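Supplementary Methods, section 5.1.

A reviewer requested that the exact input to the structure prediction be made available. We therefore reproduce it here, unchanged from the version used in the analyses.
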Amino acid sequence: MTSARPAPTGLASGARRVLTDNWTGSSTVPAPGLYPHQWSWDSAFIAIGSRHISPRRAQRELETLFAAQWGDGRIPHIVFNPAVPPAAYFPGPGFWRSSTAGAAAGAPRGVETSGIVQPPVHALASLLVHRADPRSSARHGFLARAYPRLAAWHRYLTGARDLGGGGLVAVVHPWEPGMDNSPCWDAPLARVEPAPPGTFRRADLDHGAASDRPTDLDYGRYVRLAADYRDGGYADGGAGAAFIVEDPGVNALLIASEHALAEIAALVGADASVHRDRAARLTAALVDRLWDPAAGLFLCRDVLGGGPIRELSAAGLLPLLVPGLPHGIAAALVRTARGAHFGLGHQTRLVPSYDLLGPAFDAARYWRGPAWFNVNWLLERGLRQHGESASADALRAAALETAVASGFAEYVDPYTGEARGTRGFSWTAALALDLAVAAGQGA
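The structure derived from this sequence is encoded token-by-token as follows.
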């Protein structure tokens, strides 16, 4: 068994400082300038780390997000803070118009949100937050309140979002899988007529280098897709949909969260078998529809285009999280992570977001090559789950060292660890803190 390395100097104090600075009193912003509102999967990862600082604060992080849930069950990817100036972020509440455009789907009236979603890591986060202090959780009724919210969220995803008819969740916008600018979206996006350049303003370029961010052409397509979805009342599967993709990362996180939700159900006296059965069905569908033995990982599927997207993304490695994944497939995923396409342990210390050998690889540009801390936290967990303890230990050590050295950067160059994007990024700090605690290095 590998002994724990000492935590990099200043890790715990630095991580706490980031999370304290970015806390608003009810939730945590990912980064005050670039991302000044509450983001869905960010808050789940942030809660996982902040439970080591204050379990009650971690509970509140998730409860604030759940309070913005729509009537149809969706948890929106952004909850807008009305105190933030409208020009600080685009697309903001005036673009999404959730309380009016989303009325038919049950958008809340008292808070403005976006209309799309992000990966469903929330049940896993809720379970981990509960475990941090079961007495506090029980005293505040945390799981009892969270369970029906989470169950409705999963029903929405497995019902309204089974747009391919094969039992998997589909995404309807590149921002939904969280890997916003992945080369996996290039071919499906080519069908989308971009919004004219003069019709929107990119506030993101006020806080990040253009070379690190999506191109204007891609951004115009993102805006067009979001506007069309809004103008259709946020209805899923409409005849005019131009982007429908089954993503292995989204579905792997849903399966992991179904297993977590089964445990939550048992704790609150609900039927856990519903979630175990759904996890089994999703796992079978994931393997059947998205596993590619020749590639050695899971591929995205273009539902409208009718076939797999042959780009190798870190999303295709995330099914390592899935309990009960067939052993041969798990072993192949580990080989792929260590191989020439991702280079883990020899070319790279952290897994890149995209194929090192791919034609679209860019070590600096958003999700087209850089390494992200949430992806590597998930893969560390997956490696450990499938018995790859030495690789998991090495990945954990690399993540901790890189987080501190980069100033808790949003993402980093996968070869050099050079900081990219914004600094003082909340999920980087939160997940580094979680890894340090897991390694016995204290909070």
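The first strand starts at residue 38 and ends at 39. These observations are discussed further in the main text.
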